[in-house]
Amino acid sequence: MDYLKTLRNNNKIFLKTIYFSTDKHIADDFTMRCVLTGNENCNIGYRNILLDPDSVLILNKGTSYASTVNSEVPVKSFSISFDEKFITDFNNSIRLNSKQLLDVKENATLLSELRETLYPFKGDLRLTVLHLKDYLDNNVVNEMLINEYLHHCLITYNSLYNNEVLKKAEQLHVLNQATRIEVIRRLNIAKEILYSNYYRNISLEELAENACLSVNHLLRTFKQAFNQTPHQYLTDIRLSKARYMLKRTDCPVNEIANTIGFESTSSFIRLFKKKMSTTPVAYRQTA
């Protein structure tokens, strides 16, 4: 059952089942948006982002975006919007010591710049969100418990941000911290393009142009940050999609190879066996 729950502290939780829809939105607050089944396309400016069950989209307050769903299977869209005061209080709680917390003014804010991009939807964050959804699905509302779930969502996101942005920025051979963060922001745009367009041929020039980097700068910094080249990263995405389709669908291997962007079935089988130490057919039989 779909719902929109607004808590007394103005945190909001939204579940909607969609088949066909094109909607424009403005994020009223800092938002985590994911889909639990199916796919959703989100457009933020010139960026076209594919949202699937393996990813979570972070949106800053005030961001305008459009979402499009065109699916024969239900797409379950799940969003959490955090009130600014709740975010501010969370940021203070993890950055200030006990004495500073006692002295902080009510309207003081230590909000860091929350980077809106795709993040992997896995681990503790995924577990927390799914537990929260299961609880809400039972139509029992204990706001204290729900806010504890939301607080833990922010803790796990903060850890994810540190791993996906700050730690990877430290790997760049750049002295200035602000420059490192800016380069990571641009590299994340390149990752979005790879993730959202894994099924087609993507040129380095296209990646570099969208990330506002030169081709050589993109190649050098991408490898420094992610320990992979863009092509290796794209290959991993394709193989992840292949494993999902082999487990969850009855699609023939040649159809899967074509769907995920391989030019020939034989090259897909050869690469799958090299990476997984088994063939796609054998993997499906043991999945």
TrEMBL record:
InterPro entries: AraC-bd (IPR003313), Homeodomain-like_sf (IPR009057), HTH_AraC (IPR018060), HTH_AraC-typ_CS (IPR018062), Tscrpt_reg_AraC-type_HTH (IPR020449)
Keyword Cell inner membrane: no
Organism from which the protein derives: Mucilaginibacter litoreus
Protein name, as recorded: Helix-turn-helix transcriptional regulator
Sorted UniProt keywords: DNA-binding, Transcription, Transcription regulation
Domain HTH araC/xylS-type: 188-286
Ranges in coiled-coil conformation: none
PROSITE patterns per record: HTH_ARAC_FAMILY_1 (PS00041), HTH_ARAC_FAMILY_2 (PS01124)
